[in-house]
Write a structure and sequence with these properties.
Chain lengths: 343, 434
């Protein structure tokens, strides 16, 4: 690799980042591709490191040189506002050099393969590659072919681990221990990378997970009409509901997902209107959940579709806090992956 | 007279009910005799002691890619891969560029194979002009030029009316129609089997119904017209059941299964050939159409082959260049390079005698290939001197980089297979020897 030997280690003592209070297994992972392979312990490590990052972000000058001299490249094949911006802010707050690359169109259209692109980025010094790609599995392909750390910033409908981490962090801040807490995720479950990563993360933390949507927006294996076979679901166990009122009963957390408005073209929903009638989180519906239940949304919101404006801006809503926490969580991830990178 | 004898092997010739230790004597490119000591005076000999000797394999579903995609495979490289896999006859699918939808295109395949081929190539012509699914190709002209069957493989003939007419028209010369059974509206956008693995990986699924709806349609059309239809690469339990019940009521239907559908499930997409970062392989070499399906589907395909519902094994050899697979899973080409692993992979699922029957006389009978090459797929006297010599117990590791095929795309890389082709004799000459 390009980076000079030992520079990272030399910087360590100057960095003031609180060590997590409990001695946990040291962080050894090179990539963050999804939460499916993380233990509860590892997730706690990230969340506790996030606490330290929040403290830094609260300082007058929210900067530390923890990753000074390190190069982080964000490579986004899909439009993104909050994810890309928060990774950039996170990297800069840690003193890293951050290069943003928005790759328009598919790699095929560009005539350069994804692997060629990332090898080029690695050759110019990228040590951490933050990737957003429209194809599920693209970061896994990249991780096989580079020695840089790969952070999955969202791959097609598959995974979005840092979103799930910031969701977990936000829930933890309000609820504390998530064991046996009822978390209801409503909307387009089939096409949501946020759901998949959240299911893994919440399962690791011991939460009770409920997904809710029309059968056409539930993935194979989750549709209520499908007989339960001997086959594994491939995901941790979740309760599946098509009736929102039943799903919301006694919920501790209600997470609405963005409805891609073009979903009605494939016959997945008859109309936005009917969808909103059945699945919009309204004050009346929310009253079935526990008093003070958290309302979350990964954004961007279609107000009046999946969530009513009153609910989105209510005291129960932590939607803006999710965005704020996104920076701290991504700082924690970048720090854990890049600080101890072997020379 | 040049003679070659394969001596002392266990001769398995399902067409003639032979399973005994014997010599096979080939004279002037044709089988002259099978029996004890039949080959003792031959000018050239192959010692097959401890090995199995059978008719050269017949593959009725091979993609040779030439003309148009010579970076993926050529008739020369594909026929050498065939020889390495024990195949002496392969039927070339017409989804080339240009497609094999004219007499000239058929003649190109025939002539190129005669000049450069290591084994026999029998061309398959398109059902529709340009494989566009709009109008029939000149089927009689294609047949006259040497097409042994018709298919738009790679795509279905999506229009049921056109399919009906194709079945009716083709039956006048007795040339079978091979249908890639897939409902394109149901499979649209799908890249793997729709099931728990696709849910796990966030990949768009191809439901089993996409195949079964099309199979049901084709069976209804075969019944309606009284014309035969051959179902390519059957992959689901539902398809097997549909074909079983259609056969029982006398519909003229035949079916094939690919070795990978006898031995692999959709989990291969997730697991991959070697350890992957994040534990998810997204193995593009396991991306194939129809997709690898569930263990229940695999079991049904095996049962269907054993009870005769599925007539034969066909490789669906679909070679691709490295760059066609070394990319995002969604963008990767579909297909498995299968000629060189077909025997071993089939043997992992089905008993030896059945594998040999399903790779020799059975596929020849499905397409009626003896109309073109007398006694093909047999060791009868006067049959072509096409022989595969096999070590059914030899274990070997699949190393794609050593394939003769230009297509190194196999999900079996690094896996151990039992059953290896030791030598292939085509027309009385050694086409390949280990």
């Amino acid at each position: 690799m390009i980076r000079s030997t030992g520079s990272g280690q030399a910087q360590e003592p100057t960095v003031q980042i609180a060590t997590p209070p409990q001695a946990r297994t040291p962080w050894t992972r090179r990539h963050l591709l999804d939460l499916d392979e993380l233990s509860r312990d590892e997730i706690e490590t990230i969340l506790e490191t996030t606490d330290a990052m929040k403290e830094i972000l609260g300082r007058e000058v929210p900067r530390v040189p923890a990753l000074r001299g390190r190069t982080i490249v964000t490579l986004f094949y899909e439009a993104s506002t909050r994810t890309r911006a928060s990774f950039e802010l996170a990297g800069k707050a840690l003193g890293a050099d951050v290069i943003n690359i928005a790759a328009g169109g598919s790699s095929v259209e560009k005539g350069e393969s994804l692997i060629d692109t990332v090898r080029t980025l690695e050759a110019i010094g990228a040590e951490v590659l933050v990737m957003r790609h429209f194809a599920a599995g693209a970061p896994y392909l990249v991780a096989r072919h580079v020695s840089a750390s790969v952070v999955n910033g969202g791959d097609g409908p598959h995974a979005h681990p840092t979103q799930a981490l910031l969701d977990l962090y936000t829930m933890r801040a309000h609820i504390g221990d998530m064991r046996d807490k009822r978390v209801v995720i409503v909307g387009d479950i089939a096409h949501s990378r946020v759901v998949r990563s959240n299911i893994w993360g919440l399962a690791a933390m011991g939460a009770q997970i409920v997904v809710c949507g029309p059968p056409t927006l539930l993935p194979a294996g989750m549709r209520p009409s499908q007989q339960q076979t001997e086959e594994p679901l491939g995901l941790p166990n979740v309760e599946v509901q098509t009736n929102l009122d039943a799903a919301l009963e006694d919920a501790d957390v209600v997470m609405a997902l963005r409805l891609q408005t073009e979903r009605m073209h494939g016959g997945l929903i008859p109309s936005i209107r009917e969808y909103a009638t059945l699945y919009q989180i309204t004050p009346e519906r929310l009253s079935r959940a526990k008093t003070g239940a958290l309302v979350m949304h990964p954004g961007p919101i279609n107000e009046g579709v999946e969530i009513s404006p009153e609910v989105a801006t209510s005291i129960q809503s932590v939607i803006e806090e999710q965005v704020t926490n996104g920076v701290a969580v991504r700082m924690a991830v970048l720090y854990l992956l890049a600080r101890g990178k072997p020379a | 007279m040049t003679t070659i004898a394969i001596q002392g092997g266990r001769v398995i010739d399902p067409a003639n009910g032979i399973d005994a230790t014997a010599d096979v004597l080939i004279a002037d490119g044709q089988v002259a005799a099978v029996g004890p000591d039949a080959g003792k005076d031959a000018s050239e000999t192959i010692d097959a002691t401890g090995l199995v000797v059978c008719p050269g394999f017949v593959d009725i579903h091979t993609h040779l890619r030439e003309p148009g995609f010579e970076h993926k495979e050529t008739i020369e490289s594909g026929t050498l891969a065939a020889a390495r896999g024990g195949f002496t006859t392969i039927c070339a699918m017409p989804n080339t560029e240009p497609p094999t939808d004219s007499a000239a295109a058929v003649e190109f395949v025939v002539r190129t194979a005669q000049a450069q081929g290591h084994v026999r190539v029998l061309p398959i012509g398109c059902v529709t002009r340009g494989r566009a699914g709009k109008e029939l190709a000149d089927l009689a002209e294609l047949a006259q030029a040497g097409a042994v069957a018709f298919s738009d493989d790679g795509s279905p003939v999506a229009d049921p009316h056109l399919m009906r007419r194709a079945l009716e028209y083709a039956s006048m010369h007795g040339t079978p129609v091979i249908e890639h059974s897939e409902d394109p509206a149901l499979s649209a956008g799908g890249v793997m089997h729709e099931g728990w693995v696709s849910t796990r990986l966030g990949l768009a699924g191809i439901p089993t119904a996409a195949e079964e709806v099309a199979i049901a349609r084709n069976l209804a059309l075969a019944q309606e017209t009284g014309s035969p239809v051959h179902c390519a690469h059957v992959s689901t339990a539902g398809s097997v059941e549909l074909i079983r019940s259609a056969k029982a009521r006398g519909v003229r239907v035949t079916a094939e299964v690919a070795p990978h559908h006898l031995a692999l499930t959709h989990e291969a997409v997730m697991q991959g050939a070697r350890e992957a970062p994040g534990g998810l392989a997204y193995d593009t070499n396991a991306k194939v159409n129809p997709p690898l399906r569930t263990p229940e589907d695999v079991a049904a395909c095996i049962a269907g082959l054993l009870d005769g519902t599925i007539d034969c094994i066909a490789t669906d050899h679909a070679p691709h260049a490295t760059q066609d697979k070394l990319c995002e899973f969604d963008a990767a080409a579909m297909g498995i390079s299968g000629l060189e692993t077909a025997f071993g992979q089939s043997l992992s699922a089905v008993p030896l005698e059945k594998v040999i029957a399903a790779l020799t006389i059975a596929p020849a009978a499905v397409l009626g290939l003896d109309r073109h090459v007398a006694k093909i797929g047999t060791l009868s006297e006067g049959a072509p001197g096409d022989v595969a010599v096999i070590d059914p117990n030899a274990e070997w590791t699949v190393e794609p980089e050593t394939f003769a095929s230009k297509g190194k795309n196999t999900p079996l890389a690094g896996r151990t297979l039992r059953g290896q082709v030791v030598a292939t004799v085509y027309g009385g000459k050694v086409a390949w020897q280990a």
